[in-house]
């Protein structure tokens, strides 16, 4: 942690940058959890997109089989 940061009372995982007045989270576990959740959300979105594509392809196959 940068020695110029000011600890925030009653918030052990946060500090304040006196130059920019930014509030910074210094808890690396929270950062890891955030990145993991973000990765999971991206994977779920990708799977949903693939499922929708497969549904469309299946409907197209069904349509072509009924016509033939």
Mean pLDDT: 93
The global form is rod-shaped
Structural class: alpha+beta
Low-confidence stretches: none
SSE map:
Blueprint lengths: L5 E3 L2 E6 L6 E3 L2 H40 L1
Antiparallel strand pairs: 1-2, 2-3
Task: Write a concise synopsis of the structure shown.
This protein is of the alpha+beta class and 68 residues long. 59% of the residues lie in helices and 18% in strands.
Q: Your description of this structure?
A:
59% of the residues lie in helices and 18% in strands. By secondary structure, it is of the alpha+beta class. The chain has one domain (6-67). It has a three-stranded antiparallel beta sheet with strand order 1-2-3. The model has no long low-confidence stretch (mean pLDDT 93).
What distinguishing features does this structure have?
rod-shaped, alpha+beta, 1 helix, three-stranded antiparallel β-sheet, single chain
């Amino acid at each position: 942690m940068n020695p110029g940061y000011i600890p925030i009372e009653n918030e052990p995982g946060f500090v304040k940058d006196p130059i920019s007045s930014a509030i910074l989270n210094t808890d690396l576990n929270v950062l890891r959890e955030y990145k993991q959740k973000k990765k999971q959300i991206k994977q779920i979105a990708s799977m949903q997109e693939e499922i929708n594509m497969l549904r469309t392809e299946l409907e197209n196959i069904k349509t072509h089989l009924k016509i033939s």
